[in-house]
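Hello, quick one for you while I still have it in my head. A protein chain has come my way and I'm curious about its shape. I'm sending you its amino acid sequence along with the backbone structure tokens. I'd be grateful if you could look everything over and explain what you see. Here's the protein in full, and shout if anything looks odd to you:
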Amino acid sequence: MTDPRIYVYGVIRGDHPLPPGRTGVGAPPAPLRTLRAGPLAAVVSEAPEELLARRRDLLAHQETLLALADDGPVLPRRFGTVAPGEQAVLDQLTGPAFLDTLHRLDGRLEMNLKAFPVEDSLADLLRADPALRRLRDAARRRPATRRACGWARRRRAPCGPRRRTRRTGWPAGSSRSRRPPPPAPR
């Protein structure tokens, strides 16, 4: 008999507790468990036969990760990460990279910030700040190529009008300015 497919939620330290009463993806929801490999563990459950991005499964995945993060750092896996068996998961937990990353994340917090502009806030800001208005007007007077060249000069990149070759009229160095290859012998 082959190993059942394993759904992977994330990687944690081996002593990280599982949140009590949590279940994973699937209908009915699969119980969570850990697969330990040295100082690391993967939070897993049995993968459902047909895994689709249903709302209940997306929420189960996200809520599991949030509950795990309450007790320490977590390296989340993308929704739908399924391994062919336990040994495949354990093989991924070798090496110091996961543990080093968990140490770097310890004591940190992830925040998602969304900022929405207030209607007509830019117009109000421009009316209130003459220096900002002058900068906006100066930018509008400059042709787009001049703005781009200013950006390129600050980064020491070549810019400006390219010389055209006499023979083709195409910019020098472009593939169109090169002579065509000689005809093949018959």
The chain has a mean pLDDT of 81. Strands lie at 6-13, 33-37, 40-46, 75-76, 82-83. Helices lie at 55-69, 86-92, 97-105, 121-128, 130-141, 144-154.
